[in-house]
Amino acid sequence: MGGKSAARPGVRSARRPEVSLPPLVPYEGGELEPDGDYDGLEFREADFVGQDGGGARFMDCALVGCALDETRLTRARLLDSVLTGIRGVGTDLAEATLRDVELVDARLGGTQLHGSALERVLVRGGKLDYLNLRRARLKDVVFEGCVLVEPDFGGARLERVEFVDCVLKAADLSAATLVDVDLRRVAELDIARGVDRLAGAVISPAQLLDLAPLLAAEMGVRVEGAAG
């Protein structure tokens, strides 16, 4: 679950979360409450569809197979917790804080994380469509073996972020700031907007060739065959 990533030459590695959950108590509290305080609980197969847990704090918790469609968790704090197999469309985590969190095999669509702060977060497996991370702050975050479809990093700051064996489709990096971002092990790299923001990222020689047309277009360079 924990430990630092192996060092990669030329870029500082992300620190992975070190989550060690205590013995957990099954949650039997009914609906989520705004500004609720949840400590040492296991939420298993809970249906939180459409509920309001804005401002809630989750500490040393496990969420397993929970439904989070249209669940409101704005400004929530998820600390030292593991979320496994959660699913939902339109989950609202705007301005939330995730620290020392593992998100495993999630199936999420249209999740709102704009203005959020993620530190020491591991996203492993699963599929996340239309993830909104505009103006978010990501530090020591690893995306591993997952599929990200049209993720929006517009205006976000990414520091020590790694993408490992994952698919990145139509990513938006407009106005983003990248510091020690490792893209070399991305299985499929597709940048729709913001290729000019790749300063601060490390890519492989093969990825450079794939991105060459976008980079040339960004620089206003026309690439044509020699005149006959």
Automatic annotation (TrEMBL):
Fetch the InterPro entries from UniProt. 5peptide_repeat (IPR001646), Pentapeptide-BTB/POZ_domain (IPR051082)
- Which Pfam families would you find in this protein's record? Pentapeptide, Pentapeptide_4
Region described as Disordered: 1-32
Task: Read off the PANTHER family from this record.
Answer: BTB_POZ DOMAIN-CONTAINING PROTEIN KCTD9
Q: What is this protein called?
A: Pentapeptide repeat-containing protein
Q: What is the lineage of its organism?
A: Bacteria, Bacillati, Actinomycetota, Actinomycetes, Kitasatosporales
